[in-house]
Amino acid sequence: MLSFKEYYDKCKKIYSDKFNEFDIFDKVNLHIFNPNDAGNEISVPDNYLKLIDIISKKISDKIEKNKGTFSEQLYIGVNDFSDIEELNLLGNHFTKQMEKKVYESYAIVDHLHIYRSICTEKKKLSSWLWHNDNSVNEQLKIMVYLTDVDGKSGPLNVLVKNNLPLKLESSKISPDNLGQPKFLGSRVPDEFISMAKSSGWEQYPIKGDKGTYILFDQNMIHKATIPKHGKHRDVLIFNFRPYHKNVKNKMKFVKSMNYSGDVKTFSTDIN
Length: 271
Description:
By secondary structure, the chain is α+β, with helices and mostly antiparallel strands. It has one domain: q2cbj1_9rhob like domain (Jelly Rolls, Sandwich). The protein has five helices and twelve strands. A hairpin with a 3-residue loop joins strand 2 and strand 3. The longest helix has 19 residues, at 85-103.
């Protein structure tokens, strides 16, 4: 069975005769894009902000009407989005950008996450604790803010130094060799965070207007935060991976609300 890196190298060779040898772990870190800026490395469609308005409204309607959603302690998730065609348009656009600008191979979206962070007094757990996803190194995310996010809206928090995020290598080598994460459940203990901060790593909340989109390596140390009273944060997250074929609909394999580090859908079989 091919390792994830071996599979990715084969995907790159299928995509282009000009094979570039590079490690995706070193290439992608944390990239925050304002959709109003010209020349973004990962571009958006001309009607991007209109698409975001439409998607945001449809998601908000589902959450407010409790239609196709589920509730957890710290968030409300949307698991029925088959009627939101604009997600396919945006997902396919982003994937083509990822193919050309990042992977240098064909790619697909294999998971899609849509949820609202809510104000709550309940105990922080899961993604609301410092963690890395311990995803396959070749799995990457784009998070899109569907609402304006300020310091009180529950922004994504990361640890940065010299404009780079603190990352941990994935333990996952191949589908039959997943290894063990550095920390139990990939939750990073407070002692490690304190040591990192004493070494110059700073906690950075990623704020942004509605439509801000963030490309990042899932293995950077990060956490969600709880919005203040009267605030919430709606996000859309595309999870990408390389693929050995050029499929017309890059969203055809999407699974909803699966753990982002899940490798069950990441086969390295190219036959």
